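Page header: ASSEMBLY MODEL / two components / 394 residues total.
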Amino acid sequence: MPRVKIPRKSTTVDMTAMCDVAFLLLTFFMLATKFKPEDVVKVAPPSSVSSDDVPDKNALQVLFDKEGKVFFTYSNGDELSGFVDVVSQQQNLGLNDVEKKRLIKILNGGGGIGVPFGELKQVLDLDADSYKAFKQPGIPAADSANNQLRTWIACLLASNGGKQPDNVLVKGDNGAKYPAFKEVLRAFTDNKVFHFKLVTAMADAPPGSALWDERHKK
Amino acid sequence: MAEMEVKGGGGKKGPGVKKSKKLSTRVDLTPMVDLGFLLITFFMFTTTLSSPTAMKLIMPDETAKPEEQNEAAKSGAFTIILGKGDQCYYYEGDDPKTMQVTNVKGIRDKIIDKKSRTPADKLVVIIKPDVDATYADAVALLDEMTINDVKKYAMVAVRPDEYTLVQATEAANGIK
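Prediction written out in full:
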């Protein structure tokens, strides 16, 4: 009787194709990733249909979270020492050079700072780890008599010689109350800054609306 | 992944002929693929594909030219007051007593309706978020202006008489 010969097959799989795909995906995600400085507080902005990009250079950003805590960050690409000097002088903080450097670093880092002027010196003395662990109370802005955000902006304008910052970004949380937003705007309008950019998440224009027609016009 | 040595079916050599050992040219790619996928996973989780967008907002200068502030023609004015619980209170003209209720989702139809009945140069939408309104609703309303192509709009503070009216309506409707 003839026996059927079963040929022994190799169990090795050619992994080259899989490897190719894996590294293609890897390259894509590596290029698509943008590392951004993490905000001091988690803020989930509301969505809007606007499609402009958020400028990240030469921008002043004010952040407010659910509870209305306000944080301030500013970077203009070069030295902020003039601004920090004005802040220190106007508020009689008596910051030394090390503290000033730290403040510049925090402002440039984009995370945001949110402490009242009274506590600023102490907070700047904290080392990096304790600063990270420190829960910032937010800049007092809710009370229009003691709106320290207004002072920050006034100092900024003074150090710039009255020149308006190029981009004023306001990033608020979805759950924030309107009065928090109003006080932030007031801090700016009191300083004659009227142009804002609200940071929002992207959303599509609803079909059938005037904007949708405009965008889909051929 | 264990590789099985598969013996080649070469013909038998005579005795005394030394078999030269064939070295495999295959490299085990498993660790490389592992690493690749690990990195993919890492980048997938850290990527934020939807970058935030910027919405332009220009606020009026409240100190300058107070006489221009009430310029909104009665016929073309459409006031929307934002209250608690995503509710919108809207009225046409200048009489808050004619106020009606809808919510943030329903306001679009009302704006479109008003827009269709008003000459384009007369239409002014006034957004008045009160102290109970949320930031998200205010942004949603500003967004509606873009969506519905309303050329003139302003965000101003709510008047006390309007606020009492809104509070009364909220109490009557049981909105907390």
